[in-house]
Each structure stands twice: as structure tokens, then as C-alpha cells.
Predict the 3D structure of the following.
Amino acid sequence: MDKLIITAALVGAETTKQDNPNLPTSPQELADAAYACWQAGASIVHLHVRDANEQPTQDVAVFAEAMRLIKERCDIIVQFSTGGAVGLPVEERTKPLGLRPEMATLTTGTVNFGPDVFFNSEPYVEAIAKAIQENGVKPEIEVFESGMIDNALRLVRKGLVTPPLHFDFVMGVPGGISGTVKNLLHLVESIPAGSTWSVAGIGRTELPLATMAIIMGGHVRVGFEDNIYYSRGVKAASNAQLVERIARLAKELGREVATPSEARQLLGMTP
Ligand code: KMH
Ligand code: ZN
């Protein structure tokens, strides 16, 4: 099997320091957390940023500062979120792509998101795909339900996304596909041959789905964006603690962990 790519989703847009006081929010805290995750075995950092009031923002200057501080410390692949927070207009979501991060997310459809709607109409998705392509960024296709795979394949036919495709299955969002093994198998069987995939299980589904991905030859995303607990009722001490556990499990299950350079090769990215 290929080496395992671990992505650390450090903060997201929804979690607060009230939920877990160890949540990194400032650019410096994000860089420290990214470095600790890199040391623990992460090769990609999935990046959202917050403003001075810890609110989610797509402010280009804040993304620039966080990326600069991360790159000063290590060679981890920086993946910007183009999802941001629910309700943001597409122009806001694509602005940070001008900084030309190595990777960025691309959600290929609309999904209920708890009580909200994560809005990704076809014009939105195509605008984000175009901005990703124009800036030479590697897209990670975020799949919250299975129809989003079909939408991604339509983008390929339109020339807006170029294989090899990399998918991230975000499972267990209330409103999206639930985090069961049966659903994971269905998603994996639905993507084109030659694609790579990772799974981001929300909440208590994080660990079992990550374990499945390690066994099946997929890749894993963990972090406070998806889950703030280490075990039932016990808050995680850091994002790195969650990454460390995946690296440890992978070793036990016979899979080596990829460095950022190895991850770039596995994902077909130009260095
Ligand atoms: N915060 C969610 C509404 C992404 O990063 O691209 C969207 C999200 C997806 O987190
Ligand atoms: Zn995100």
C-alpha cells in the first residue's frame, strides 16, 4: 500500500475556544499547531483562519500571515479552505487563492449543514474550480454526500478539474452522508480508478473511519475542525495529539506515514 497521508484540519469555522480551549485561532497559534502536527506525521494542513475576534474570515492578509509563519517552520503542504464559513459569497471564498497555496478545497455541491445550508450552486462550484485552476492549485474535492462525486466528474468533462483527482469524504455532518462503513465503501467504489481519497469523520466517527481508511489504502484527515475529543467525554489536548494517534495506528497496521514530499508525489502534484 502507498504511504499514509495525514491531513490536520486545525480549526475550521465552527468550533470555538469555549468548545475546546486548545483550539488554535491566531496565525501564530495556527503555525505552532501546524508545526506540531508536522512533527507528529501530518503532511497536509487544512487551513481556515480567524480574525482578531476569533471569527471565521477569508481575509487574504490573515491567510498570508498564517501561511508565511507555517512555511517558516516546516515543508507541510498548506491547503486553503474555499468553503470558509456558511453564508460567505463566492468572491470572498476564492480571494485567498491569489496567494497560490499548494492545495485548496473544492466542495462540489450544496448540503444541509446542521441548521444551516453550505451553499455550493453550480455557478459557485465552477467559479471556485476556475480560480483554483488559474492559480495552479491542486484541488481536494470535498464530498459531503455521494452526488458530489458525479458533480466533480462533470467538472472534469468541462475541463475545470484535471485528473488525477483527490477526494476527501467528509462524513457525519448533520445534513450530509452519515459516517458508516457501508457508506464509506460506497463512496470509495464510486470514484474513478487512479484517484486518491481521504476520510474526515465528524465527531465520534473520526477514529473508526480513519482506521478503515488506513486498512483500505485511503488517507486520513483529523483535527479540531472535525472533532474536539480524544475519547468519549475527554477533550483532545491538541491537534497534534489526534495526528499522533493516527500515525501510531498506521504503524501498528503496517502502513508507513508519508512526508510532505511523498504526499506531493502520491497526489500527482508538481513540487
Ligand atoms: N466550514 C464549512 C461550512 C472547506 O473547508 O472547504 C465548510 C468547510 C469546507 O469547512
Ligand atoms: Zn474546512
In short: The pocket of zinc ion (ligand 2) is lined by residues 9, 12, 46, 48, 81, 83, 225 (CB under 6 Å).
